[in-house]
Amino acid sequence: MTTKIEWTDEVWNPVTGCTKVSDGCKNCYAERMARHLAGRYGYPEAPHHFDVTLRPERLEQSLRWKKSRRIFVCSMGDLFHDDVPFDFVLDVWRIMWQAKQHCFQILTKRPGRMLDFLEHLAVDTRDGKPQLFRTAKVTDWLRFGSLSNVWLGVTAENQTAADERIPQLLQCPAAVRFVSCEPLLGPIDLTEYMGANSYDWWSERGPIYPGEPALSWCIVGGESGPGARPMHPDWARGLRDQCQVAGVPYFYKQHGAWLHESQFLEPVTIRTPGIVTFEEWNLPKYQWPDDSYSYRVGKKAAGRLLDGRTWDEFPE
């Protein structure tokens, strides 16, 4: 399914539905979209529209896309939710193994369960297909070459979420490990996770890929939609600067619904015709501790320029 998400080309949803686990889930866009689709396109009727639901009929969808593309896996749910059996996750893995022309991007808020799955994934040399074994080791999975097209990531909306989720992510074997700081709800310091030699995250399991950074990509964005919370641009700048120092690609997705007064470098067109300055807007505003203000102008008017330019960097 085509998507407007800036950092991917398609979305593939063999699982839909989820449950809230942290502050970043408060205004979940997927739940809002599922509510809109309730009773249609295979979504359950309300109030069960966002129940975790397996979609086996969608498993082979990505195999029919012949042109190479980036595919966001489970944009409408979490592949590693507790209610998704490992047997079904394995079915998803088999499809990704077959569709080597694509790059699959998996984002989860449950990296512990993702690590548990990967630690039980190994190769059945009789037919060359991945199988689950209780005693399998991560090194068994590394001998299976399919991870070259699978990127694994976690959402980290604040420092607490980053410190809980990223260490588990860095124990997962993957061609690319990434973090999505969206919605960004506070300043985050990722410095200790970006250095290739900062930590031996695998300990007895083995080293991080030699010469590769622990984190290979950082996505940042503010919140949009009903109830959106403001993001201070200094939080986004801080992450950008950390990425530049570490040589990690940085992708700035959006300001969100709010725009800080420091971002008003020129007049902006908003909902009503004409050009106005922010002093003339009769819009909701939020006062920061430094006495500066952010104004709720809407996602489209806020845009995605950070300090006068877009940041659309991807891992190689």
Main beta-sheet annotation: 7 strands, parallel
* CATH top level class name: Alpha Beta
CATH fold descriptor? pyruvate-formate lyase- activating enzyme
How is the largest sheet built, in terms of strand order?
A: 1-4-5-8-9-10-11
The overall average pLDDT, rounded, is 84
The appropriate CATH architecture is Alpha-Beta Horseshoe
Number of strands: 16
The portion of residues assigned to helices is 10-25%
Would you write up a description of this structure?
Helix 3 (111-119) runs parallel beside helix 5. The protein has a seven-stranded parallel sheet with strand order 1-4-5-8-9-10-11. Strands 12-16-15 form a three-stranded antiparallel sheet, with no helix packed on it. The chain has a two-stranded antiparallel sheet with strand order 2-3. Helix content is 22%, strand content 19%. The chain has eight helices and 16 strands. The protein has a single domain (10-258), classed as pyruvate-formate lyase- activating enzyme (Alpha-Beta Horseshoe), CATH 3.80.30. The protein has 316 residues and is of the alpha/beta class. It has helices spanning 29-36, 86-98, 111-119, 138-142, 159-169, 191-194, 233-246, 299-302; strands spanning 10-12, 15-16, 53-54, 70-73, 103-108, 121-124, 129-132, 150-155, 176-181, 217-221, 250-254, 258-260, 268-269, 275-276, 285-287, 293-296. The protein is globular.
Summarize the structure.
The chain is an alpha/beta fold. It has 8 helices and 16 strands.
